[in-house]
Amino acid sequence: MNLNDTISAISTPIGEGGISVTRISGSNSFGITEKIFFKDTARNRKISIQETASHTIHFGYLFDGENQIDEVMVSIFKKPNSYTGEDTIEISSHGGVLVTQKILSLTIKSGARHAEPGEFTKRAFLNKRLDLSQAEAVADLIKAKTDSAHESSLKQLEGSLSKYISTVRQEIIDATSLIELELDFSEEDIEFVPKDEFRNKISGIVEKLNEIISSYISGKIIRDGINLVISGRTNSGKSSLFNQLLKSDRAIVSNISGTTRDYLQENIVIDGILFNLIDTAGIRQSEDVIETEGIKRSFRKIEEADFILYLIDSTESMDFIENEAEYFKNNFDLKKSIPVFTKKDIGKVRKGEISISVYDEGSIKELKSSITGKINESANVKTGSEIILTNLRHKLCIESVVNSLEQVISGIDRKMSGEFISVDLRNALNYLGEITGEVTNEEILNNIFKNFCIGK
Ligand SMILES: Nc1nc2c(ncn2[C@@H]2O[C@H](COP(=O)(O)OP(=O)(O)OP(=O)(O)O)[C@@H](O)[C@H]2O)c(=O)[nH]1
Ligand SMILES: [Mg+2]
User: Fold this and answer.
1) How far apart are the C-alpha atoms of 278 and 117, rounded to whole Å?
2) Could you report how far apart the first and last alpha carbons of the chain are, in Å?
3) How far apart are the CA of 309 and the centre of ligand 1, in A?
4) What is the dihedral of CA 406, 408, 409, 415, to 10 degrees?
5) Ligand 1 site, residue 264, Cβ cutoff 6 A
6) How does DSSP classify residue 336?
7) Which terminus of the chain has a lower count of CB atoms within 10 Å, N or C?
């Protein structure tokens, strides 16, 4: 990782828009800007950024040699008061694909290097503007699709997880120093902390951490949403329900069995929970090669699903319906799937079951609340003030911390010497440090930042 060069990238999405922002960061970003930016079209008036105040904006023109590229606003951020902690320039230009590409090329021609994905944020981390969990929160915030995802990533960005980790860290450090002090005086047989008290302290920390680990399920739901698969026999009304939930004519609906061949996928938000809604090919015996492949994919989607609606056509014969109810019971995990009887406007309504019609808004509303109710019940979806783990990496680190602390406890129980116990305590500290990036390596960093977009 080279921190000495100057990087540049388009920080706004590629496309046509009102403005686009190209960002330059590094020790040469002011020099590069001074080469290409003029306050008049005759290129007589230049800007001396060293003599200009930080956090000011300047109107002018970008030139590639004699060719004018655009009319722009240049924002100046002097180190350390910038996102990356380095000297930074943001060029706000007209938002066109070609214009911004030309500006990016111009900055590169003038001495910048094209930034890698997430490199601005990586520099912010390396310059200690953010810790690692906050840097990850930046990526989550950008990707947030629901209010709860937005809220939890913003909290993490503000340092809620970092603060929590640092209190736990301090508690472990205190415990470690006591044990190590005791080691220094081991010959004198002094006990600085009664072993029981020490043990309670550690198991208290383990308990707290386990609670945080269990928040991960709801954290995952908040961040990634729920894969909700609509399944059932052909013609049971899957695509009709899919369209009705999306409020759009997305899937083809017809009274011909086997209309949907491939699966379709769209996002919706119900009661603040993000759903990845999937319509599938109806299940039946088929001679058709393509339909058979579609049905195979339906089963794959069912396997991967977080939640399944199994649709049963209530206009069919009693025998058929009983068979279907039986099939559902025997083949689906009842914790995360519900049978839904369709076409109730022209079929038989079954008491105590969920019956819907796509022509009856009320029944769709009831279906939605059954879904969210069941999800909230099983995942205990949390929002609000407490810490919610949304990131698998953090969860794995905390699990390793818990593992090490459990070793500590078993060490105490087996009356192991303080030397062994302090090794486990130090391991726990290392794993905690990995979350915030106090302990890290290039591989972890690359893994995290490669998922960022370019320009962030
Ligand atoms: N009356 C009534 N008809 C419905 C309802 N839902 C679906 N239908 C009709 O049932 C037929 C099949 O609907 P689809 O949504 O295509 O069924 P599907 O399960 O997607 O079928 P495949 O894609 O073939 O597996 C269509 O003619 C729909 O108009 C409903 O609530 N009431
Ligand atoms: Mg269909």
Assistant:
1) 30
2) 17
3) 15
4) 150
5) no
6) S
7) N
Question: Residues lining ligand 2 (ion), CB within 5 A?
Answer: 238-239, 259-260
DSSP for 243-284, written as a single string: HHHHTS--S---SSTT---S-EEEEEEETTEEEEEEE-PPB-
Q: Which ligand is nearest to the CA of 251?
A: 2
Is the CB of 151 within 6 Å of ligand 1? Answer: no
Give per-residue burial for 368-403: e unless 16+ CB within 10 Å, then b: eeebbebbeeebebbeeeebbbbbebbbebbebbbe
Show pLDDT as tens, one digit a residue, over the chain (456 residues): 567 899 999 999 988 999 999 999 999 999 999 999 999 999 999 999 999 999 999 999 999 999 999 999 999 999 999 999 999 999 999 998 999 999 999 999 999 999 999 999 999 999 999 999 999 999 999 989 888 889 989 999 999 999 999 999 999 988 888 777 776 666 666 666 677 888 999 999 999 999 899 888 888 888 888 999 999 999 999 999 999 999 999 999 999 999 999 999 999 999 888 999 999 999 999 999 999 999 999 999 999 999 999 999 999 999 999 999 999 999 999 989 999 999 999 998 888 899 999 999 999 999 999 999 888 776 665 554 478 888 889 999 999 999 999 999 999 899 888 888 889 999 999 999 999 998 888 888 888 888 888 888
Q: State the Cα–Cα distance between residues 106 and 70, nearest whole angstrom.
A: 11
Coil/strand/helix, residue 26: coil
Beta bridge partners of 395: none
225 CA to middle of ligand 2, Å? Answer: 23
Handedness of CA 96, 99, 105, 106 (dihedral sign): negative
Task: Name the residue with the closest Cα to ligand 1, atom 3.
Answer: 343
Give the CA angle between residues 226, 232, 235 to the nearest 5°. Answer: 125
- Where do we find the tokens 């306050």? 39
Ligand 1 neighbourhood includes 215 CB (under 6 angstroms):
no
Q: 244 C-alpha to center of ligand 2: Å?
A: 12
Span from the CA of 271 to the centroid of ligand 1 (angstroms)? 26
Q: Which domains does the chain have, with CATH numbers?
A: 7-131 (3.30.1360.120), 135-215+388-437 (1.20.120.430), 226-379 (3.40.50.300)
Spatial separation of the C-alpha atoms in residues 35 and 328, rounded to whole Å: 70
Helix (H) or strand (E) holding 60: strand 56-64
Give me the DSSP letters along 116-143.
Answer: PTTHHHHHHHHTTSS-HHHHHHHHHHHH
